[in-house]
Structures are given as structure tokens and as C-alpha cells.
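Contributing: when you submit paired examples, paste them exactly as shown. First protein:
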Amino acid sequence: MPRIDFDRHLQQLQDELLLLGSMVEKAINKAVDALKRRDLEVSKQVVKEDDLVDEKRFQLEEQCIELIATQQPIARDLRTIVAVMQIAVELERMGDYAEGIGKISLMMGSEPPVKPLIDIPRMTEKATDMLSKSLDAFVNRDVALATQVCVDDDEVDALYDQVYRELLMLMIQTPEIIERGTYLLWAAHDLERIADRATNIAERVIFLVTGKLMEINVSKY
């Protein structure tokens, strides 16, 4: 395969990865919005559409394996392909967390949340911003932006701590809401894990650019 064709295949991989990232970001926002509005039909859509995210991830993986097998890339080209594969896995797991929030909403049924959802949407906004930044860092090979994503994870952790404390206090004060409170704890934890996956992507970008594997910000959870 001539170099120009190989570069075109690499660019196609990158474009497909960004498409997967867009699908995942939409799924996260859709899941939390449905949870907040108690829209069970939209929650069902989120659960069903996760199959599309899984399918896209496997397609990307197959493309990467084929390029490695047929072209035997070395050095930075190989790191790029491996990065695409690993980032695709992280995105697919984020999609699973969005699906999980959709399922939580369905388990809650028609019951309203135990408290107005303020911090959970804030977690969503921050986590999806981290996702967007991590993919921008990948496209632009931007180590500084990738490092910032890892630092931003502290803010999501702080919001999760706040949600945890508030819900725990509510459940202690009013035991009959324990089940509904637990559902929201699960949703918040899914969002915290989405942010952790964004940091994993950012760390993969740093490896792609520098050739060094490192953990910039180790989550407490």
C-alpha cells in the first residue's frame, strides 16, 4: 500500500473514532436528560441504541487489526493505530455507562427523584466536556490539553462526593427513599466513571505523542 493510501486509511480511522465519540456524547446527554425529565421512552431508546455504539467499536477494531496485519506499521504509525483501538474501547465503555443510566431511569419507573437533579447534570456537563477535550487532544496531538483533561477529573470527583453526601444524608433522614436514592447514587457513579474513561483517553494521547505511558491523575474510586 503506497504511503498516501496508508495515510488516507489512518485519517479514516480517526474520522470514524470521532464519529463514535459523538455517538457516545449524545448517548450520555440523552440518558441524563431522560432521567431528569422522567422520560421512560427516551430511556428505552438510550438502552437500545447502545448496540450501535458496540457495533461501531467492533468495526473500528477490525479496521485497526487489518491495517496492522497488512501493513506492519512501526513507530508512531503503530502507536496511532493502537491508540485508536484503545480509545474506541474507552468510548464503548462510556456508552455502557450511558446505557446504565438509561436502565436506572427505567428501574425508577414513574417515581420522581428524591431531590431536584442539579449536581448530576453538572457532572454530565463536565464529563462530556472532558470527553470532547480528550478527543480534540487526540486530533491535534495536544499534550497540554490532554493533561488538562486529567486535572479536570478532580472537579467531577468533587461533585460526586457532594452528591454522595447529600443523598446519604437524605436516606438516613428518610429511610423510605433509600431505593430511589440508591438509583441516583448509581447514576452519579456512572458519570464519575465516564470522566475516568476520559482521563484514560487523555493519557493515551500523551503516550501517542511522547511514547511514554503515565498516569496523570489517579482516581480515588
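Second protein:
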Amino acid sequence: MDRLPDIIHIIGGGLAGAEAAYQAARQGRRAVLYEMRPGRATPAHRTGCLAELVCSNSLKSEQESSAPWLLKEELRRLDSLLLRAAAYARVPGGHALTVDREAFAREVTGAIAAEPRIEVRREEVQSVPEDGITIIASGPLTSDALAVEIGRLTGSSRLFFYDSISPIVEADSVNQEIAFRASRYDKSLDGTGDYLNCPLDRAQYDAFVEALLAAESHSAHIAEDDTRYFEACLPIEELARRGRDTLRFGPMKPMGLTDLRTGRRPWAVVQLRQENLRADSYNLVGFQNHMKYGEQARVLRMIPGLERAEFVRFGQIHRNTYINAPALLTPALQLRQNPRILFAGQISGVEGYVESIATGLMAGRHAAALAAGEPVLAFPRETALGSLCHYVSGADPANYQPANITFDLLPPLDEATRQKLRHDKKARHAEVCRRALEKLEEYRAAYV
């Protein structure tokens, strides 16, 4: 294979872009990381830091032998910068890996700045550089100019859906005589309960749903046929419209929680998750919405314990842009029509922080191999990493939807093993994880 110019351009300093730059540099390649912030702001970001988290502060489950745990374990074994930063910035979050957003972003930004092979350029990229290899990791808030360039490169219309982010309240404005501390099913880091829980009885829940359905929404300049929310991030208003009890079986489910004042399970619960190491703010878990800010304050203060809530940030709606990856990308995340261009992160159609980090790691390593004139080998299909890329490159292009990592994406166990473990789901999942990590180690020994 001919060696390409020894420079890798990475467009976008989010989770995928930062990880890609780090991985390329650790493989001995020169990387230029472009980030338009803070000179050019986005509707959701608040700082100029790299790898800023704008929605939740959770990197999902750390429960061993779960699919999210497997993906993170594979990344740890491959020296993921962002997984190290998450461990450094971790805050209590039950069985989930939750982080202090500011500490996390500062840690990543500092590590990138300290890497001599990475140059950070604070500028907006409107066209793909002509020299070297390019990783497009511009994320769901890709600028209009770059989106036009991506459309030119891919020869297809861009796709987009609309996504919302949850409100954050000041900790000392939560009435902790009402809100009780507990983790669902007693799962917490130290046994004391990592969440604040605001309990509602049936009458309070019904009144809240009525107010929610009647609340006035922001005018988001969304064409009627473009309001395609990703199912995993539905605004609470959309959920409420699907039925009176939808919220109670979704983000407000009371399962696994007991109100310490009554000794009984509440009718519904709103969980608050710690935002940072100082524990001075909490986000409303799963409460993404697009009500007007005044309406949010009015409706959300109907929740017991939040009557006097002070909001650090209200929920808001923003556009998420992604390509039709199955029609465009190889399992190594390369553009089929131009293999020196790779895509990573949410722009490729993965959903979730860790999934974005994962595609960034793979794209960075694959780009480094290209720059060195070495073969680019996709990760084994049995791994979570390989299965994620298999979905991105092999799903039905006509019905492509962003995806989180789940066991459904990984190949099934052989028939004999499935039969042996047919009555033990946990054992089956553990075996899928064991197989994945074994294949990853074989890949590392042969290629990494």
C-alpha cells in the first residue's frame, strides 16, 4: 500500500475527535485537531473545552457483563484517553459511570495539549483538507457549511433528527425533607444512595402530566415533517402524549425505590443525578424537554421537592446531524468512495457518549495505519467495537437509525452454548463478553 502524507486531520474536538487525535498520536502519527469553539459557538455547548458533554453526564452502566460495560472494558484495554479521564472525573451515579462534566473536559483538554504530536487549531473547517487523511468527527451540531461539504463528499442528502437535553438544578434548592437519597434496587458506589428521588403520589402525578401536556413549547423552527426524535431521547412531552402512564413506566418509573417517609413505593419518581464533584448541582434524569423556559420553571416546580428549584440550565432542543453510514462507510469507518476520509462519532450514526468515543478510537487507529502504509483491519465482529462498526456499515440504509451498543448487535453464541445456557440469561451475556474480550486480545496480539 502506498504511504499517504504523514498527517491526519481530525475535524471536531468532541468525544470522538479528541479520542481519534490521541490514538493517532500514540501510534506515532502527526495529528491536527480542528475545533471551532470558542470562536464559533453552538446552540448546546457552554465552553471551549474539548470533549464537552452537553446532554447527560452519564457514560452508562458499569455493571459487569452488560453490553455498555463490555464496550468500556474494550476501550480501557486499548488505552482510551477518554475512559481514563472519566475515571478521574467520576462522581456517584449508582451502577453507572457518571462524571463531573467540567473536570472531565479539562482533563481531556489538558492531555491533548500535552501530546507533542497533536496540534490544536481553533478554527471552523468548511472543506476537507486536500493533503493527508481526514477524520470527520464534527458531531451532531455540525456547522451548516461543513454539512454542505459532507453532502458533496457523500453524494447524498444529509439526515437529521432533533434531540433534547435535560435541565439542571442547584443542589441547595432541592427540598431534601421531601426528596430522599437512594439508588434503584440499592445499587450505589458506597451503599448510601447516589440519587436524590422526588416522589409523587397519584394525584400529584396526574396534575403534573396535565400541566406538561398544556405547557407552551419553544418555536424551534422545525418543519413538521422533520420532527423525528430519536426514540432513546424523546422529550417528556412526547412521551406524555403517548399515554397517561408512559412517563410512569419510563423516566419516572418508581421500580426499585422506597420512599423513606412512607416505607412504600411511590406512584412515580423523578430522579436527580449529581452533576459534578462539588455536588452543588443535579440534573433531572431523562427529563429532556423543549418547553419554554418560563413554562419549564412552572411545570417542573410542581414536582415534590422542587417547589423552589433554581435552574442552572433549562432543557433545550437542538439538531443532530448524521450521515447514512450503511450506504457510505466500510466496517473500518472509511468512506467507500474515498478511503482516506473516515467518519467517527455521532455524525456516523452511533448514539451515546461511549459509542462516540469508540468510533473515535477506531478511526484514529485506522487512520494511523493508513498513514503508515499498513493494512487497515476492522475489529473482530465478536467484539463490541467490531459489532458497532458492523451495524454502522451494514444496517439497512433505507431505515438507518442511530444505535447504542446492545447485545443484539453482537453475533449470537454457537448453538451448543446457547442450548447449554438457555435458562440463564446472565450466563449467556457473560459468555458473550468473555468471547469478545478473548477476540480483542487476539486482535491486539496480531495487529495493535
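If you have annotations for the second protein, write them as plain sentences, like these:
The first strand starts at residue 8 and ends at 11.
The two ends are 18 Å apart (CA to CA).
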